[in-house]
Amino acid sequence: MGIIQAVILGIVQGLSEFLPISSSAHLVIVSNLCKVFTGSDLAQHSSEEIFLDIMLHLGTLIAVLIYFRKDIINILKSLLIGIKTKDLTQKDTQTGLYIILGTVITVLIAFPLNNTAENLVFKPVKVGILLVITGLILLISEIYSKKTELKSEEIDFKTSIKIAIAQGIAALPGFSRSGLTIAAGLFSKKTRPASAEYSFLLSIPIILGASMFYPLLEIDLNSIMHFNWISITLGTIVSAITGYLCIKYFLQFVAKYSLAFFGYYCIIIGIITSAFFTFISMGL
């Protein structure tokens, strides 16, 4: 694992984790492109690559924790007070409960999809197709949102369920977690900023659990000492910095502009990816 490859993957993870373009798809695409250019087997996925993927997700987790630190503290405080006083009517308390419930729903949906998701890592053609579907969903959600006159900033119970379901489905590489969850918010007549902020908060337990702790079970601990730790460390730092900046400016972007650009981007990149790796598999 070279330094340049790790840094590139760090930038890709930091940008695509929070932009509605599927971080998993872009990591699959970039890592497979690296294998094509180095002549490696597309079906191979080393322990070092798996560990780097975990560390890159750690970087984006650090980014979201730092950016939303005040919101997270307020939600935790309100949740503890609400449980103690049995008053669950406060906004932050309900948000905390929605996140807990949403995480459970996400796991229940995503866990059965785990084997399929792992197999898709080696099938960039199918990942490209799912990326196209993500783009179409983003475009349709924007069209629906523009036709909706009354939009709310409040994430209610029903909306939190829909967003959680979307997040569970997004376990498949190619489906953008942020894209599908924000789209679910738009379909529920919520504003883009409200949907995006809740989506990022809901991502914290999932990034911590599904993207980090679970893959650790697949790591050969005896080989960790032989990993290129300089590359891994730099990739993680780049992922955290890029992720933080991405959150900051993306929230400013969605407050003013639609997600149509990202929809078209996903469709174009998805088509190119499927076509390119189809030709590669045919030996063209």
Architecture overview:
There is one protein chain. The protein has one domain (3-281). 76% of the residues lie in helices and 0% in strands. The protein is built from twelve helices and no strands.
Biggest sheet features: none
Give the SSE order as H and E letters. Answer: HHHHHHHHHHHH
DSSP E strands, number: 0
Helical residue percent? Answer: over 70%
Mean pLDDT: 89
- How many helix segments? 12
- Could you say which structural class the secondary elements and strand pairing correspond to? mainly alpha
Shape: globular
How much of the sequence is in beta strands?
under 5%
Distance between the amino and carboxyl termini:
27 Å
Cα-atom radius of gyration: 19 Å
Stretches where pLDDT is under 50 for at least 5 consecutive residues are none
Number of domains: 1
